[in-house]
Amino acid sequence: MSLPPSSGPDTPITEREQPRSFGTGPVAITVMVIGVALSLFQLYSAGIEPLGLFYQRSIHLAFIMVLAFLIFPVFGQRRKRGVIGWAVDLAFLAASIASGGYIVWNLDAIFARAGFWSEMDIWMGILTTVTVLEASRRAIGLGMTLIGVAAILYALAGPRGALPWLGEWLPGILSHRGNSLDRLVGQLYLGQEGIFGLPLGVAATYIFVFVLFGAFLEVTGAGKFFIDLAYAATGRKPGGPAKAAVLASAGMGSISGSALANVVTTGAFTIPLMKKLGYRPAQAGGIEAAASTGGQITPPLMGAGAFLISEYTRIPYIDIVLISIFPAVLYLGTVYLFVHIVAMKAGMKGMPQAELPNVRDVLAAGWQFILPLFLLIWLLANNLSPMRVGFWAIVSVVVVAGLRAGVEMIWLDPKRGKPLTAERLATAGRRGAALLIEALSLGARNAVAVSMACAVAGIIVGVVGLTGLGLKFSSMMVAFSGGNLVLALILVLIASLILGMGLPVTASYIVLIVLVGPALSQEFGIPLLIAHLVVFWYSQDSNVTPPVALAGFAGAAIANAKPMETSVQAWKFAKGLYLIPLFMVYNPEMILGGPILLVLWTGFIAILALAAFAAAIEGWLFAPMDWLSRALIVPATIAVFHPDHVIEAAGAALLLAILAVNWWRGRAGGTPQVAPRRAEG
Questions:
Q1: DSSP letter (8 states) at residue 369
Q2: How far is CA 519 from each of CA 60, 311, 527, 591, rounded to the nearest angstrom?
Q3: Based on C-alpha coordinates, what's the Rg of the chain?
Q4: What is the 3-state secondary structure (H, E, C) of 132-181?
Q5: Which regions of the chain are under pLDDT 70?
Q6: Can you give the pLDDT at residue 400?
Q7: CB 552 within 8 A of CB 501
Q8: 130, 199, 313, 438: least surrounded by Cβ within 10 Å?
Q9: Where are the domains of the chain?
């Protein structure tokens, strides 16, 4: 996605966003038309006439796959399709339409057969499965497709399966009786636990409508508003652009819910400014990657995770959002503290006031973007369906944007010497229509990857349910960890990193929770909601953890830095991603609530431990920190995680003493006079 032309702190805040163009060729126009049609279909089913489960999901997937095959040619986007390419793509386009059309047209007959599938049912199931895997390869990457293929082969392996010879290669604990092709197709295509299962159901309802909501905010200029607001709030402070990146990513997270999207939007100008201020290129890219990962865990979207957690746990979506606010603040606060410490160590200064936007001007130009967010929260608090909430939030964006434009054109512009004319009204009408079409098309395009990820995740979930792999995996996890909870969580972390090499974050979470969720909640006694949150948080680590670090690589490209060095910096700044889930496990009242004093104490020690740990890593807080203090912080932090309140209090007291000594040293030594220089690693 290209950056809007009016992005950046130097751009006049009153300048409006212009509609983006995705091309003018026949394919681009077709993509736009189909994207608009998909978005209108989703809005109709969200706010006017809800559809049945299979109707909604099958039509949604057909639209998404058509977009995937149009946007991503068979031989890649850098090569022309040619005759062979068009022949292949047209075949898959026809298969995409047929996959959804067959379900919609024959749904009553399929229900009547109830397991006694016809030959056409089986062939359509095979065709749809192959089409889903190919669309996934193009939209997401080969890794997701290979995992889906491996799951299918695993389901068919076994003495009673279609591939009995393959079962001989399976280790004893993973062996199963095997499944026939008919039974597997029935599970994946004609049942509610396969391709059209819960993951795609969430993508086809809640996720899409909120992605579309984000697209409407984006094209109307909300991204620039949040970024300008962050600069106005933090720009004058030491390391201002880096702190603005943290806050802007939190704001952008409520729009995009994607770490990579946050990096390429906010990072395009925060990273150059950080480098100009004194941060090393790898540090600038790492800070942006770590901050942008915070967008994935920031309510209300949480990178689509909040909807999935709600569906799996049967806990209302608004409750998931509310309990996720404090952990998200802890994470973003930790990144912010790292940025501050690095700036203070290097003696950095803030940006001149003349180069920063004014808070009043920012709010005056963008107040309308706050109203839909407040409406969204109010509707959720009143227990309206998230799908219906998203519909009304989108309507509110259109209404407030139209009112704002109307007030300026009819009331304010004449006072500025711009009289209202028929030509200006016609121009405004055309521009509004263009922005509306752009938002509808952009929302559909943005949903392709996550919907395809959920469709393939449905294949994996269906196979897990068919073969009992989840229970086998849980048994393996208990055996490998020896019943030790810390080792079990480390195994989850390693598994999430490995899955993150081939799966998007959403798919990684779905696969992991299906495989390890039963063990965490049943064998280790972790409450169900906390188990889901831990797995969801750990699924983000592929954004910032070498050797994968997708967000780190994106930050490195913008910063012109070495990818691995940038990833190491991102991994350092994102330490809260690993510590906060541990804190949830050992201090469940942080999520589940409890006596008010206990909840306040838990929040206090969480902030204390994260601040002390950041200071220990950087060797600085109020003043340079000696090696003894840094060494003592490690066992003290571990003690804070201990379930015994006496040990917990002792660890907190030691941390307070260490930080108090550091504060006293900083106060006694005065404000350090350090010449501005590049930050050290």
A1: G
A2: 33, 19, 11, 20
A3: 26
A4: HHHHHHHHCCHHHHHHHHHHHHHHHECCCCCEHHHHCCCCHHHCCCCCCH
A5: 1-24, 223, 249-258, 260-261, 264-265, 268-269, 301, 303-304, 500-503, 547-548, 669-681
A6: 87
A7: no
A8: 130
A9: 51-190, 200-436, 594-670
Q: Which residues of 226-265 are buried (b: 16+ CB within 10 A; e: fewer)?
A: bbbbbbbbbbebbbbbbbbbbbbbbbbbbbbbbbbbbbbb
| Residue (of 305, 330, 311) closest to 253 by Cα position | 305
Q: Rounded to an integer, what distance in angstroms lies between the CA atom of residue 33 and that of residue 1? A: 18
User: What pLDDT, on the 0 to 100 scale, is given for residue 252?
Assistant: 66
* Predicted local distance difference test score (pLDDT) of residue 674: 44
Work out the number of other CB atoms within 10 angstroms of the CB of residue 483.
10
Instruction: From 477, 567, 457, 573, select the one nearest 517 (Cα to Cα).
Output: 477
Which token pair is 90? 């047209």
Residue 307 burial (10 A CB sphere; 0-12, 13-18, 19+): buried
Q: Which residue has the tokens 């906390």?
A: 530
Pick the closest to residue 362 from 11, 3, 14 (CA basis): 14
Cβ neighbours, 10 Å, residue 409? 17
Residue 620, SS3 per DSSP = strand
Helix, coil or strand: residue 659:
helix
Nearest of 107, 99, 92, 11 to residue 55 by alpha carbon: 107
- Are the beta carbons of 605 and 322 closer than 8 angstroms? no
Partners of residue 62 on adjacent β-strands: none
Residue 318, pLDDT score:
85
- Confirm if 507 and 457 have CB atoms less than 8 A apart: yes
Give the per-residue SS3 of 317-331. Answer: HHHHHHHHHHHHHHH
CB 574 within 8 A of CB 544: yes
- How many other CB atoms are there within 10 angstroms of residue 509's CB atom? 28
What angle (nearest 5°) sits at the alpha carbon of residue 554, between those of residues 553 and 557? 85
DSSP secondary structure code for residue 622 in this structure: S
- 552/563 Cα distance (integer angstroms): 7
HSE-CB at 321 with a 13 A cutoff on CA atoms is 16
Strand partners, 163: 157
Cα 453 to chain centroid distance, Å, stands at 13
| Single-letter code of the amino acid located at 429 | G
CB atoms within 10 A of CB 172: 5
Contact between 558 and 304 under an 8 Å Cβ cutoff? The reply is no
Model pTM score: 0.73
Which has the closest alpha carbon to 509: 257, 138, 247?
257
* Residues 556/282, Cβ–Cβ less than 8 Å: yes
